[in-house]
Amino acid sequence: MSQFNIEEEIEDIAGGEFERVPVPESKLKSWKSFLGMYAGEHAAGTEFVIGPLFLTTGVSAFDLIVGLLLGNLLAVLSWRFLTAEIAVKYRLTLYYQLEKICGKSLVTGYNLANGVLFCFLAGSMITVSATAVGIPFHMEMPKLTDTMPNGMTWVIIVIALGAVISLIASKGYDTVSKAANWMSPVIVLAFLACGIVALNQLGVGSLSEFWEIWGEGSDPFPGQIKYTFWHVVIWSWFANAAMHVGMSDLSVFRFAKKASSGWTTAAGMYVGHYMAWIAAALLYAVYLKSPEAQGLLANGEAPTVAPGPLANNAIGVFGIIAVVLAGWTTANPTIYRAGLAFQAIVPKLSTFWVTIIAGTLATVAGLFPAFAMKLLGFVALYGFILAPFGAIIVFEHFFHKQAGIVKNYAEEANLKFNKAVFFAWAISFGLFYYISIQFDVFLSFVTLPAWLLCGVLFLVFSKWIQKS
């Protein structure tokens, strides 16, 4: 799920240019340039949390294994036929393309939301790394239901990690990007090793025994909702909603020679969002058989989801190192990206200071385990908020002629705030968020309807505003 440094990595290869012009043909990259990036960047810190969290929802073997196959396929198809298709047509960053349609003031609001959400995600990854760093100090691990810091040791470790990560991110992206490239293969290997060791610890010797680990599923743990087949499919499809249907990865695929490079996202989905999630889930399945976990369940409490101890139990010190690296390689570029989003709002501040501000916000978020322990819900909310902006780009690209509207209207009419975009997003977001809360509908279930409604309303409002 965590490929937030791909954009800067590719721009670094290309010289960090073309932010406000189409990428020239001489700078285009083959599909091989994207394959490794997506494979590495989607096997990161978030995967150590998401895999176990699936088990807390009482998911069955069929729902998890087949649901993830289908959901990740839908994500790949979204990248291939929407994101990559539009990216190679215009070869512009998401931010510049949105600015042409929405106006600069409205894009500022988008950047603020993006930056804050990035900080929260980075905070959850600082939490992940802290569960590994805390092992030698015999730190009490956060429980699944914890929202507040559980002790001074936790606070000190999170603040120390946050400070180190923020300072490294503030030094610029070159070091961060190179380090992430070196660490990604180690992390992928660690996930694979964890899965194999966990299978051995569970005594699995055949496919049928593997299938029986989850069996027909169970009741969800306290504080969790029950996941069915469709929960798994839709959630895994929209885990990266902001990146594919939300068009954030236009900034990545604008460097692709052909739209077919979009197929390389399958490496990320099936290495990270399939192998790594299932491997992490197996680690948690081992822990659930322990006397400690059984005691908690008997008392009606949810067993702890702490990636550090889970990986340590499987592969020892290598597991601890892998969890720290996985959290680091996610949090660092995410803080950097958040800083860039904030800098677009306050351009007079240096990159150093906006990154420190973003890192401080992420560190504060990391103190509260709820961001990591509720990661399934947070990721769903993240995509739900940002994905409809991608519908604006998609519907204008495919349907502007049929709707009879002017493309890039904010640029053509010299608008700083395109009301058609704002009201389309606000109505679709407000309506379906209300439905989700009022009728207790799983948020990922309403992401696609909100995306479609936003696109349709944009065409309708644009027609009316442009005519007037």
TrEMBL record:
InterPro entries: CodB. This is Purine-cytosine permease. PANTHER family: CYTOSINE PERMEASE, CYTOSINE TRANSPORTER CODB. The keyword Transmembrane applies. GO terms for cellular component: plasma membrane. It comes from the Bacteria. Keywords: Membrane, Transmembrane, Transmembrane helix. Signal peptide: none annotated. GO terms for molecular function: cytosine transmembrane transporter activity. The chain crosses the membrane at residues 61-82, 115-139, 151-170, 182-207, 227-246, 267-287, 310-331, 352-372, 378-399, 420-436, 442-461. Gene3D superfamilies: Hydantoin permease. It comes from Arenibacter troitsensis.
